[in-house]
Fold each of these.
Amino acid sequence: MTAPQYIYDGNIVGKKIAELRNTLPEFGILYSIKANPYAPLVAYIASQNVGADAAAKKEVLIAEAAGVPAENIYYSGPGKTAADLEETFDKCIIIADSFHELELLDSIASSRRIKKSVGIRINPSFFGTPGKFGIDEELCTRDAFSRYPHLVIAGIHVHVKSQELDWQKIYQYYENVFALAEKIQNELGEKLSFINFGSGIGVPYTADDKPVDLAKLSTACGLLVRKYQSKIPAKLLIESGRFIVCEAGTYTTKVLDIKKSRGKTYLIVAGGLNGFARPAVAALLEEDHVATEPLFTKHHAWTITLDGKSDEMEMVDIVGNLCTASDILAKDFLLPKAEIGDRITITNAGSYACTLSFQQFGGQQAPEETLILPEGSSH
């Protein structure tokens, strides 16, 4: 098999869902489809009673096809068009990202002669920065929302950071969101029915990364929920981000050629930049480049291994077969001496991997995807 392949382990996915559920039992879990929209994987996650966070109309439809009920699909994301909202109006809970989207939703609800419950995404003041996502907190007033008589603001959605490993920062963020929810609820004069806290819980990519202390986070959040539950009896939601799927995925590709050039050895493989773009992007960036999620998290954020049998080691550049010098998976990387036909495997390929790659560029064969289901699973 020449085509590169993504392999997803359903056992790990199930384990991560259980881990998250045990850590935060007071919260419902939404799977962020943008992390990996592979349909069989989404269907398996849905079978575990996990809802969906959809950032686009297509992701709403993917979640619907996977069997997620409409009341457990939350459609956020900026720039929704009237056509997007019309098509998804009855298929999910829509989170308005702007006043313009509220205008569009109000018009649709008016034309259908109904009152529609929606959520709003808020850009919170506790960070105080401008941003493309949501409505600034200070603009979220009863007067502002009264302009949309056919809508009921039923919940809020906040999301400001991904890939956080410090449990105390995650807890502080949750505490801030609860305080914001109380403020919005008081402003509206109505109880909120849901609070979407967004994502944030990260995964360790390197040996230097310490995983989130889930035990401490669980204890602290349990106390926090009890503090607020009488004042805000809302459904509490978190988005899983990469937490569920990142470590469940591996990427494997074949060595097509080996070239020596002026003292450097190149392993040419199928599917570099156009197969798994994140290592290729990292190889092009300076060592001090800051995280730019989800395209770049950090350098050396995966383990690369070779299935060859040689005991001899050599320093190589692993490059793809596209006609561009930027098609690099790893530079000056120590591996067992390879032979043509050997396979290279890269870890942490379950999230923001296949769909971030430039598969249309260069006319090469696209990666294949496979889900290995847990034994006895019907999905």
Amino acid sequence: MAEYRNPKPTVDCIIELPGERIVLIRRKNPPVGWALPGGFVDEGEALHTAAAREALEETGLTVKLLEQFFTYSDPKRDPRQHTISTVYLATAEGEPKGADDAAEARTFPLDALPQDLCFDHGTILSDYRTYKRTGQRRKL
């Protein structure tokens, strides 16, 4: 009998700081590059709790979650395995410091993001720029 394999739930957080800057982390582990703070949801953990926990662990920032932005589920979004990410919009104060599995955490203006973004985070951030400019969200 074949083993049934489910996609893994994950969360990502678009953290906006004053001055229209967002927080990205440089990953320590493959796939390497810049990414939104986030990670896997623990068993028994609510999505919003996981988003706040991952943000704190990777950036040292205590975030105020504002809302769910969108859920990204392309089976190819993570080269390691099929994941489904619920993305949250958040704000925070202070300057991020990379920790846990983040080699570094920095802020970037939305119009000057690094090119080497991991996963589908380029798509997520493009959707976010559109949302900030027009108020329109990605259509299903």
